[in-house]
Amino acid sequence: MDISSFPVIISGPSVSGKSYLASQYKGDTLHSSELKREDMYDYLSNIFRDNVILKYSSVYEVIEGEVNNITHTSITLKNNEIESLYTIGSLFKDALIRENINIGDKIRFNISTGKLNKVLEIDYDGEMQKSKNIDSEVSLLTIDNINSNLNPLSLEKISYSVKKISNKNVKSALNNTSTLKLNYLKIEDIHLLSLDELNMLSDLMYEKYIPNLIFTLNTDKLTSEQEKSTLFNKCTTVTLKREDTIKKIVEENNYEENVIQYLKEHPLLLKEVIHCVNYISFDKKRSFDKLIKEFE
């Protein structure tokens, strides 16, 4: 089953494959129990903006070449027949170690951002230092932190490649050619949230940019009070049936007959069955019939 509209609520009874379906979409996963905190709105707002990514191109001043020699105090780069010797300090040496750069590797040092990285290709034009158009990514949360004049080096969840990005570069990217990438963000078991907490989630939907949200909901545990939340009016709902999910999983995975029979007799142990089948796929000596008894 493919999901094409977001935000979406994957609902169904216990063991109906909600998490299994959500897992097909790669991204961060939060459990509703993690959201029960006094600063829930701000906490979630930051996570939302950390999962909305600005992809942009900017012109940077860079040095790039093929590593010809490395010493404790210098690095020699070559580009075609041209060689240049650069004196390096402790921070640059740390970056060489961190990026696992060796002789023969092609590297690019971004003078504007201080970022050093290994690259697959360089321009063999005989010039070490040049202006170059480089594609970059930065989350909206990072832009928020930079523009609020906080010290980006002290902030968590900011990737090394954008720690030194300037306000000017970010604003230029926002005003020129750029695109937004919306990550998948999964929030499991929202039936554990109170009506107020569900409505807080709903309020966050008014933000201009939000990630592709996937919620899972156990319909067996949803109360009539929780059903009043405005969240449900803002989401597409995908309803799963336990028997349909089991049939689909069996068909997709070509299970042995004894596994299929066990699932028919113990549908509530779907997660345990999947775990056991995955386990014996690595350890051929283990028997499914014996392994599943540990969960009964």
TrEMBL record:
Domain TIP49 P-loop: 26-219
The protein, known as: TIP49 P-loop domain-containing protein
GO MF entries: ATP binding
SUPFAM superfamilies noted in UniProt: Nucleic acid-binding proteins (SSF50249)
Gene3D superfamilies named among the record's database cross-references: RuvB-like helicase, domain II (2.40.50.360)
One Pfam family recorded for the sequence: TIP49
Stretches assigned to coiled coil: none
